[in-house]
Design a protein that fits this description.
This protein is α/β, with parallel strands linked by helices. The protein folds into two domains: 111 residues, Aspartate Aminotransferase, domain 1 (Alpha-Beta Complex); 235 residues, 3-Layer(aba) Sandwich (Aspartate Aminotransferase, domain 2), CATH 3.40.640.10. It is 45% helix and 14% strand. The protein is built from 15 helices and 13 strands. A seven-stranded mixed beta sheet has the order 2-10-9-8-7-3-4, sandwiched between helices. The longest helix is centred in the last third of the chain and has 31 residues. The protein starts with 13 loop residues before the first helix and ends with a helix. The model has no long low-confidence stretch (mean pLDDT 97). Bound molecules: (2S)-2-hydroxybutanedioic acid. (2S)-2-hydroxybutanedioic acid binds next to loops.
Length: 396
């Protein structure tokens, strides 16, 4: 059976982590995978997570299966975080949430649901988008297409081109929008632009699927949901795939959710009944631990307040690194304009570095950047900044 199997290509993001781990250079720098590092280059466990884990250890009294859609308290907290407590969508029960194994798991469940229930619908992805979007949905059997997003000249949003693309999307297709902190560019629409996008989607009869993996890493937990809330004013049906990997640092606990927003509670229940089957045929029911942590923290007023401070710390450190990076390059006499990186949000920015420059950085300087030139700003520290900017200067 196995004689003729060919080695698979390395994953464009996680494959680099494997190379990074194998690199013996003590000064190596990893700006590839979207994982937060503190100023000491460590990926910490949040204090609120540790506290929640203590409580869970004391109180947990069963390891029985969760329901296929996960823990109801967790799902309720997810909806409150997405839409804000007291939102009409929650009150009217137009939203139904399934706890999923990470944001990736939520995307895959959405893909399985689309392929099964709406086989004619294509999914439109931004150009560029997260390297794994295409592959997740294609693996589920969903046809993927592209809409315009980034303007290479300004390294900003080409909003006119984006709108023109949306106008070509057929009724009944689905568009994947990054709720905030666009991966890989860090370029987000303004609230006004989100409102116009919502108008266009309503006119066209196109359903949004919002990938919302970075809430809190842009401007703030509430501010970062502005785009999603604009969409909810314009369209009644949507998918939201959310994740606690980044804002709780729960990467390896695979803690995410798929939320369906429908016209009414009855319709949401019908759609979720189909989603449940996709879950059952895939992994049966979700892992519990990460969801328990999130539910514990978000259900406790003082832990929640402390968590908001921890998220702010993560966000502020990343934004400080954006400034330090641009200023250090300038101080070193680099003339290429990197200033747009200061305006971008979340973990990532498009550096404009070419594939050849990215390869040289890895081979000659042990600096790991995704081939597209996407850099994880959260991997920069005050200590590695000088070496990083010297190396970039050398390859430019
Ligand atoms: C990234 O884009 O680096 C993260 O979302 C992690 C991943 O799974 O690729």
């Amino acid at each position: 059976m196995f004689e003729n199997v060919q080695t698979a290509p390395a994953d464009p993001i996680l494959g680099l982590t494997e190379l990074f781990k194998a690199d013996p250079n003590p000064d190596k720098i990893n700006l590839s995978v979207g994982v937060y590092q503190d100023a000491q280059g460590k990926t910490p466990v949040l204090e609120t997570v540790k506290e929640a884990e203590k409580r869970i250890l004391e109180q947990e009294n069963s390891k029985g299966y969760l329901p296929m859609t996960g823990e109801p308290v967790y799902c309720a907290r997810v909806q409150e975080l997405l839409f804000g407590e007291g939102h009409e969508i929650i009150g009217s029960k137009r939203a139904a949430t399934a706890q999923c194994p990470g944001g990736t798991g939520a995307l895959r469940v959405a893909g399985d649901y689309l392929a099964n229930q709406h086989p004619g619908a294509s999914l439109w992805l931004s150009n560029p988008t997260w390297a794994n979007h295409n592959t997740i949905f294609q693996a589920a059997g969903v046809n993927c297409k592209q809409y315009a997003y980034r303007d290479p000249a300004s390294n900003g949003l080409d909003f006119d081109a984006m709108c023109e693309s949306i106008k070509t999307i057929p009724r009944g297709d689905v568009i994947l929008l990054h709720g905030c902190c666009h991966n890989p560019t860090g370029i987000d629409p303004t609230p006004e632009q989100w409102s116009q996008i919502g108008d266009l989607l309503a006119e066209q009869g196109v359903v949004p699927l919002v990938d919302f993996a970075y809430q809190g890493l842009g401007v703030g937990i509430e501010e970062d949901r502005a785009g999603l809330l604009e969409l909810t004013k314009k369209v009644k049906q949507m998918f939201v795939c959310s994740s606690f990997s980044k804002n709780f640092g729960l990467y390896r606990e695979r803690t995410g959710a798929l939320t369906i927003v429908a016209d009414n509670a009855e319709q949401a229940g019908v759609v979720m009944s189909q989603v449940k089957l996709r879950i059952r045929y895939n992994y049966s029911n979700p892992p519990s631990h990460g969801g328990q942590i999130v539910a514990t923290v978000l259900s406790d007023k003082s832990l929640r307040t402390k968590w908001l401070e921890e998220v702010a710390e993560i966000r502020n450190r990343i934004n400080d690194m954006r400034h330090l990076f641009v200023n250090t390059l300038k101080d070193k006499g680099v003339t290429q304009d990197f200033s747009s990186i200061i305006e971008q949000r979340g973990m990532f920015s498009f550096s404009g570095l070419t594939k050849e420059q990215v390869d040289r950085l890895r081979e000659e300087f042990s600096i790991y950047i995704v081939g597209s030139g996407r850099i994880n700003v959260a991997g920069m520290t005050p200590d590695n900044m000088d070496r990083l900017c010297e190396a970039i200067k050398a390859v430019l």
